[in-house]
């Protein structure tokens, strides 16, 4: 799921308003974690610190 | 004993890059900010707190004299570190938390990991302003109130941060809170030895967890941590190839790196030997191959691993 201008505006609007309050910020975090991580198959889960170059990539067959 | 000098070599090679991420102009309003996208490119509307972990790298460099460290003893390096602590205080949310991915995120990992890095730097530099201590306490109070039990490495980082805050403030509540976080973490250790990351094992994140647990054990000598730590390290050792790499195709988070410091503290030389060999041969992911955001904490861990020996 790529970021788009409208999604970014929505995210910032939420952050500037309800996001100030802990429970709402927690709710958004829960929703994002579900959409990007827990509801996805293992190989499709979002992990910020992954997918760096690995020398073995050169030998992998697609 | 193994040749861990490779960790210092790699860490030192990343220092100019990391210094370049930071605003080093004391007259600038963003002095001490290490998120270049924020202060220099001005492409984002908030500063990612995780970049402030660079402060610990600067503190380590300014306080430890070792071969090749041209930064040792420079007052300027200490000033940059202090500026980084100051900026960290400035971007703190009112409730004590910090943001990593978007404004008002109140991120558990950013609060835990940066509080560890900042407090460790403060302990090393042995000089801090009362306002920095107040920010540290605010962050600690937020960590006391919040958990992220599904993600073990973040819980370990929070425990280590809280323990450091106890060391800085002498307030027993933080030592107890650290112990509670450790208990929550140990309760969740799998029979196979790993600490779960979103329900499964992940070697890269497990080594971050091991790094924090070993640092906690080293500072507290808490014997309840030692055996779980050994079991976790054995879990990693059994999965490591001779060239220091591992198969990440079946792990829960698909990370590719290894944080070595915990293994050095616990003297797991079999793992360190393989990993050093892998770093030297270019067969494992190292900080130089990572993006700016993730280069910083891994560089810190490499340097800490070298300094432990």
Give structural attributes.
heterodimer, A: about 60 residues, mainly alpha, 2 helices, B: about 300 residues, about 60% helix, globular
Strand share of the residues of chain A? under 5%
By DSSP, the count of extended strands of chain A is 0
Helix content of chain A: 40-55%
Radius of gyration of chain B: 18 Å
The average pLDDT score of chain B comes to 96
Give a brief outline of the structure.
The complex is a heterodimer of chains A (62) and B (309). Chain A is mostly helical and 62 residues long.
Explain how this protein is built:
The complex is a heterodimer of chains A (62) and B (309). Chain A is mainly α and 62 residues long. Helix content of chain A is 47%, strand content 0%. The longest helix of chain A has 17 residues, at 22-38. The model of chain A has no long low-confidence stretch (mean pLDDT 89). Chain B is mostly helical. In chain B, helix 1 runs antiparallel to helix 13 (292-308), helix 3 (54-63) runs antiparallel to helix 4 (75-90) and helix 7 (152-169) packs parallel to helix 9. The radius of gyration of chain B is 18 Å and the shape is globular. The interface between A and B is medium-sized, with 25 and 26 residues.
List the helices and strands and how they pair.
The complex is a heterodimer of chains A (62) and B (309).
Chain A lengths: L4 H12 L5 H17 L24
Chain B lengths: L4 H17 L14 H4 L14 H10 L11 H16 L17 H18 L4 H16 L6 H18 L2 H16 L15 H18 L2 H15 L23 H5 L3 H13 L10 H17 L1
Helix pairs in contact in B: 1-13, 3-4, 3-5, 3-13, 4-5, 5-6, 5-7, 6-7, 7-8, 7-9, 9-10
């Amino acid at each position: 799921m790529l970021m788009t201008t409208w999604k970014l505006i929505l995210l910032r609007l939420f952050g500037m308003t309800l996001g100030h309050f802990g429970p709402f910020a927690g709710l958004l975090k829960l929703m994002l974690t579900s959409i990007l991580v827990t509801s996805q198959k293992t190989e499709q889960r979002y992990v910020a610190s992954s997918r760096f170059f690995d020398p073995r990539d050169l030998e992998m067959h697609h | 004993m193994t040749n861990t000098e490779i960790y210092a070599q790699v860490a030192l090679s990343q220092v100019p890059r990391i210094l370049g991420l930071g605003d080093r102009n004391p007259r600038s309003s963003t002095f001490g900010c290490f998120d270049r996208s924020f202060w220099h490119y001005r492409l984002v509307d908030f500063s990612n707190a995780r970049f402030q972990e660079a402060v610990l790298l600067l503190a380590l460099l300014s306080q430890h004299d070792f071969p090749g460290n041209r930064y040792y003893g420079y007052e300027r390096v200490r000033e940059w570190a202090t500026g980084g602590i100051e900026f960290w205080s400035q971007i703190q949310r009112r409730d004590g938390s910090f943001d990593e991915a978007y404004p008002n995120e109140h991120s558990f990992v950013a609060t835990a990991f940066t509080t560890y890095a900042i407090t460790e730097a403060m302990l090393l530099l042995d000089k801090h302003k009362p306002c920095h201590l107040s920010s540290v306490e605010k962050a600690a109070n937020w960590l006391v109130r919040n958990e992220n039990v599904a993600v073990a490495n973040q819980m370990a980082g929070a425990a280590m941060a809280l323990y450091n805050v106890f060391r800085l403030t002498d307030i027993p509540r933080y030592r107890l809170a650290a112990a509670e976080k450790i208990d929550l973490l140990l309760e969740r250790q799998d029979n196979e030895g790993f600490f779960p990351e979103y329900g499964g094992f992940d070697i890269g994140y497990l080594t971050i967890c091991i790094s924090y647990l070993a640092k906690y054990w080293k500072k507290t000598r808490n014997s309840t941590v030692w055996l779980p730590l050994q079991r976790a390290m054995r879990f990693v050792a059994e999965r490591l190839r001779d060239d220091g790499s591992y198969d990440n195709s079946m792990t829960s988070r698909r990370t590719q790196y290894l944080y070595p410091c915990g293994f050095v503290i616990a003297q797991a030389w079999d793992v360190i030997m393989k990993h050093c060999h892998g770093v030297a041969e270019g067969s494992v992911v190292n900080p130089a191959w990572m993006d700016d955001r993730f280069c910083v904490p891994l560089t810190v861990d490499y340097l800490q691993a070298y300094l432990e020996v």
